[in-house]
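Checklist before submission:
- one chain only
- standard amino acids only
- sequence pasted in full

Submission:
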Amino acid sequence: MPRPPRRSIARRLAALGALGVAAALSWVGGAPAAAGEPAGIDVVQVEGLLDPPNLSLVRSSVRDANERGSTLLVLQIDSAGAVDVDVDSAARAIRESGVPVVAWVGPSGSDAKGAATLLVEAAHIASVSSGSAVGPAVPLRLDRPGEPPEAQVADDLATLAEATDREPEGARRLADERLSGEQARRAGAVNVLEPTLGELIVSLDGRVVTTAAGDQELQTAKVIGKGTDRRRQPNQEIRFNRLPLDAQVLHTLTSPSIAYLLFVAGLALMVFEFYTAAIGLAGLTGAVALVGAFIGFSHLPVEWWAVGLLMLAVFGYAIDVQAGRTGVWTVIGTGALVAGSLTLYGGSSRLDPPWWVLAIVIVGTALFMLGAMPTVIRSRFSTPTVGREGMIGGMGEAEVDVAPEGVVVIEGARWRARTNRATPIEAGGAVRVVAVDGLVLEVEPEEGGARDYRH
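Returned file contents:
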């Protein structure tokens, strides 16, 4: 039997190799959509402040939609404005997108204020749900009110609206007005008013949209059912995209209310841990809370002197907790807590925590420092069977070094204690109680105690 020529064998091997490479690439990149099959609709939920995580989500979603050739990209917006970002980059990415971008302010009750208004007008199609509103766009950035000035914001809105065949003068109104969905539609600032996301998608079927890639006729719906049951529904996959976990954590920490709450709670827990003479869960939780608060503060216009007032407040409460009574430092601490809470953030007043958050933090902190902490410390360092006045002259043992402060055990109960600086007591040493000052015992060594000038 004749052997095939060497050249023929080489060609076959080359062909097999090419097929193998093609199969590998297909396996890595995924099978492409069948010819004529819709590429899918991407929906991106933009909620809360337009901060670095949210703005990065918008830009990456536009890029990804163009790379996969999506039929449509919908930005579902509910935002009060921007902090620590340049929103122009996101608006530019939307305008340069070859995939049609739709901005929908929804669901009902949502708002697009500040820089979010700019994203609405940058979109190829703008829509608002029933019960939602758009505007005002000023201030564009909540951390820098007045930058840019209102006239420039109005001009930018008009330019974006004109580029998408909407009414420039209607868009100008959004600079300083809050318009309901119906008002915005009548003014020509938005294209359509749709109550739900599903109705928005099917309503766009057959609409011609001009993008950076040219005119595109949208095919987003199909008819199902017969007779009176005929209805339209989306004709392709709808993919929802939100912030990944790490970005969601950063976005949450950037919330002014969350950062404020974490800071005050962290300070209170650290003081609590100090007075319980241990390093445990409360201290660890407090440290984590403070780290989270400072991460949030790094993106917000914080008044650092107000941060100092909040620290003074907790310090003032701690002094009276140490003394075991309510005194002038409690008054100072309460005043500093209220003043620091009300003036913590600069920039726009939209960043101020709502009144109910302020009330919870202020009242909760005062109750914790004046009520809960003394009770917990008393239960930790004493027992009801031990009479404090009758303890004078009693003997016990130092649990840790008392130099000049530490912890002692008297009749089985743990107490905070202090001694004269001239007579430090080592852990395990015998101690004698010489006085009681609130929740703190004054002690001396069993032998060789130095007489304090106060006695």
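Reviewer check: The mean pLDDT is 86.
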